[in-house]
Write a structure and sequence with these properties.
This protein is of the alpha/beta class. The chain folds into 2 domains: 3-145, Sandwich (Immunoglobulin-like); 178-404, Rossmann fold. It has helices at 18-23, 26-30, 66-69, 205-220, 252-262, 279-289, 371-375, 388-404; strands at 3-5, 13-14, 40-44, 48-49, 55-64, 77-84, 90-97, 106-117, 120-129, 136-145, 163-164, 179-180, 186-193, 223-224, 227-235, 240-246, 297-304, 327-333, 381-385. Strands 1, 3, 4, 5, 8 and 11 form a 6-stranded mixed beta sheet that branches. The longest helix is centred in the C-terminal third of the chain and has 17 residues, at 388-404. The protein is elongated.
Length: 406
C-alpha cells in the first residue's frame, strides 16, 4: 500500500516578491484561461487564536505524486497562493515542490501554508504550475475570519497587516499594540520558570514550553509608557538564572534563545538532582530579590507551568510582606488534555489542533502546584490559563489592574 507522505520533500520555500510575481500570469488565470488536469486538492482551515495572540489559519494543498512521476526528469512544480482582502489588496507567496528520484512509497506531496490574518472576508486562489510545460491548475475558495467575541484586547492588532504568509510570532510579524499606561513610574518584573512538570498528566515537556515561551514573548510586547520591564528566566531544577535583561523593543526570543538551548528542560543531569530540596527556596530567593525597593512601583508577573516539588522539599513560603503599591500576579499555564479516542493531534502533516480548544478538549488544572503556596504571603492574583483566549483575558485583566494603581 502506498504511504501518504505529509511532508514537503526537498522543497525550497520562498516568499514571492513583486518582480517575480509579475512574471506569472495569475491575473490571466483568474480571468478564466485554459487549465490542465493537474490532480491536486485545496483545503482551508478556520482561523484560530494562536499562542502569540494573532489569528492564524492554514492552507493545506495536496498534489498527487503521479504529477511528478509523469514529468520528464521529475522536475519541480510551483504552488502559488494568493489572498485578496475586501479592499482588493493582494498577498502572494510561493512554494516549490519536488520529490525524491524514486518516490515509490508516496501517494501525495502535501504542503501546509501558515497564514497570519486579521478578521475580514477574503478570496483565496491557489495554483499548481509546471515551469517546464507552462501548464497550470487553479482553485478558488472564500475565507471568512470573524472578530473575536468580546475581545478583551480590541486594539491589539491595529498595526498588523491583514495577511502575512508566515508563522505567527513577534519575530516574524509586526508587534502587537498593547500599551500600558500608568500614573506613576512602574518597574515590571516578568519571571518565567523554565522548569516544567514532568508528570504524564501535565502534558509533554515540549507542549508545556510551546505555551510558556509564546506567552513570555507576548508579555514582552507590552509597551510601558511610564516605566520599564525586565525579563528573567529561572531554571528552578538546576537552581540558576539562565537569562535576565531589560526588554528594549527587540523580540525577546532572539535574546533568550541561547539560554533555552543551553538549558534544555527536557534533560536533567545527575548533579542538578543533588540538593533538590533547595529548589523551592532558590525560586523564593529570586522572587524576593526582584521585589526589593519601593520606588518605582514594582509589579511581579510569574509565568510557570504547575510545579509540584518532590517529597522532602523545603516549601517554607516567602518571608517578605508585600510593599505598599507592589502587585504580584501568577499566570499558571495548564496544558490542555486530549481524549484518547482519536482526538489527539494527528500525524506531522496535519495542522496542529487550534489554540482555542474544541468542546471535546478537557481543561486541566493542577491543584497540587507548589509554587502558589510559596508565594502566598505576597497575596498574588492567580490566573489559571489553558487556552490562548484565557491568556488573552488574563493579560487584559493584569494590565487593567496595573493601570488603575494609584
Amino acid at each position: 500500500m502506498l504511504r501518504i507522505c505529509a511532508c514537503l520533500l526537498a522543497a525550497a520555500v520562498a516568499a514571492l516578491g513583486q518582480p517575480e510575481s509579475a512574471r506569472l500570469p495569475l491575473e490571466e488565470w483568474l480571468n478564466g484561461s485554459a487549465e490542465t488536469r493537474i490532480r491536486w486538492s485545496l483545503r482551508l482551515f478556520p482561523a484560530t487564536l494562536s499562542e502569540y495572540q494573532r489569528l492564524e489559519t492554514y492552507i493545506w494543498a495536496s498534489v498527487a505524486v503521479d504529477e511528478f512521476v509523469k514529468k520528464p526528469g521529475r522536475g519541480p512544480l510551483a504552488l502559488l497562493f494568493e489572498i485578496r482582502d475586501r479592499d482588493n489588496r493582494t498577498y502572494r507567496t510561493r512554494r516549490i515542490l519536488s520529490v525524491n528520484q524514486n518516490p515509490t512509497d508516496l501517494a501525495a506531496v502535501r504542503v501546509i501554508q501558515h497564514v497570519c490574518i486579521l478578521p475580514g472576508d477574503y478570496e483565496v486562489a491557489a495554483a499548481v504550475y509546471d515551469p517546464e510545460s507552462k501548464e497550470h491548475n487553479l482553485k478558488r475558495a472564500t475565507l471568512r475570519v470573524p472578530e473575536l467575541a468580546h475581545d478583551p484586547l480590541p486594539g491589539a492588532w491595529r498595526d498588523l497587516p491583514n495577511v502575512e504568509f508566515r508563522s505567527c510570532g513577534p519575530a516574524n510579524s509586526s508587534r502587537l499594540s498593547i500599551p500600558l499606561e500608568t500614573e506613576k513610574p512602574v518597574q515590571v518584573e516578568v519571571v518565567m520558570n523554565q522548569t516544567v512538570n514532568r508528570s504524564k498528566s501535565s502534558g509533554s515537556v515540549v507542549a508545556q514550553m510551546n505555551t510558556l515561551i509564546p506567552r513570555l514573548e507576548v508579555l514582552s510586547e507590552m509597551e510601558l509608557r511610564n516605566g520599564s520591564m525586565n525579563v528573567t528566566l529561572l531554571d528552578v531544577e538546576r537552581r540558576k538564572v539562565t537569562f535576565t535583561g531589560e526588554v528594549s523593543g527587540r523580540p525577546i526570543r532572539r535574546r533568550i534563545g541561547p539560554a533555552l538551548r543551553e538549558n534544555d528542560p527536557g534533560k536533567i543531569d545527575i548533579h542538578s538532582l543533588e540538593n533538590y530540596t533547595e529548589d523551592a527556596q532558590f525560586f523564593i530567593s529570586e522572587i524576593r530579590k526582584r521585589l526589593v525597593g519601593s520606588e518605582p512601583q514594582r509589579v511581579m508577573i510569574v509565568l510557570s507551568a504547575p510545579l509540584d516539588f518532590p517529597k522532602g522539599e523545603d516549601l517554607t513560603p516567602i518571608q517578605t510582606s508585600p510593599q505598599p503599591g507592589n502587585q504580584v500576579f501568577y499566570i499558571r499555564c495548564n496544558s490542555p488534555l486530549y481524549p484518547s479516542a482519536g482526538l489527539s493531534p494527528g500525524p506531522a502533516f496535519e495542522p496542529a489542533l487550534p489554540a482555542n480548544p474544541a468542546p471535546h478538549m478537557a481543561r486541566y488544572v493542577n491543584n497540587s502546584d507548589s509554587l502558589e503556596r510559596t508565594l502566598k504571603p505576597l497575596h498574588p492574583r492567580l490566573f489559571d490559563v489553558t487556552t490562548a483566549a484565557e491568556f488573552r483575558s488574563a493579560l487584559a485583566a493584569i494590565m487593567n489592574e496595573i493601570s488603575q494603581q494609584r
